[in-house]
Amino acid sequence: MRTPHVLAISLILSAPALCAQDAYRASVDAWHAQREARLAAEDGWLTLIGRDWLNPGENALGSAPGSTVLLPEGLSLPKAGLFLVEGTTVRFKPFPGSGLLLNGKPAVEAVLKSDAEGQPDLLQAGRVSFYVIRRGDRLGIRMKDPETPARKAFHGVPRYPVDAAWRIEADFIPYDKPQTRTIATVIGTTETMSSPGLLRFKMGGRDITLEPMVEDPEHPELFILFKDGTSTHGTYPAGRFLYADMPKNGKVILDFNRAINPPCAFSMFATCPLPPRQNHLAIDVPAGEKNPGLH
């Protein structure tokens, strides 16, 4: 039996470790609160109400049945304008009296920048906003409404308890030069991404390798699309995302407590990339976000 003196010493020695665990848990909780706030923002993923693909030539915009890009009936804009598609260029022509805004000003005929070119040009009809997206060789219109039922009913994303054991240091093995990868998407298209190398580490007593991507070379960070055993019983079936800082001294910190659901877990109108086969893990990763079960 421990004497009170020995017990007191044990408590004193363990206090710093307990404080560190509490601080770590608090940091992950604070990060996740910000993540949920972004999801629930007025232009967040919970506001998606439409994704209409454009055809070459004229594409009608309006609330009238048969419009290529269909506005909500409540807007009472049967014929609001035309999207004119030629190659990869989308020109918008508003109809007189539509009251549409383009980047916050009364809309005029203009060529629209898509999300593939950075910040897209934003059209607005009342509270509804929409812009051009490009996925592979397809052009479409993504539409958002801050008054969606999903946003109104949102009360957070379920997740596993924070566990520091899932904050893992991985070895980074760089390629001689970045490798180009073709990544499938949930809508049947493909995206091209660049991988700088491999990540190797131990998890659950097994040697694991993941191949990270870099989405935006101008703002480099590692983007890991992965799927694990929990995809069949707890997490989103299509997989999850994990972001990490670029390697430092050949090491990368992978914090699976920060694994998040892809946008398609929250909306059928998202166009998410899917984890490549090499990132399908044969073990469970009970850390990070769980399946929100929204659709």
Your description of this structure?
There is one protein chain. The chain is mainly beta. The chain has two domains: 45-152, Tumour Suppressor Smad4 (Sandwich); 156-279, no CATH class. Helix content is 14%, strand content 35%. The protein is built from two helices and 17 strands. It has helices spanning 4-39, 149-152, and strands spanning 48-53, 57-62, 69-70, 81-86, 89-94, 101-102, 105-106, 110-112, 123-125, 128-135, 138-144, 167-184, 190-203, 206-210, 222-226, 240-244, 251-255. Strands 1-11-10-9-6-7 form a six-stranded antiparallel sheet, with no helix packed on it. The protein has a five-stranded mixed sheet with strand order 3-2-4-5-8, with no helix packed on it. A hairpin with a 2-residue loop joins β6 and β7 (105-106). 29% of the residues are buried. The mean pLDDT is 93.
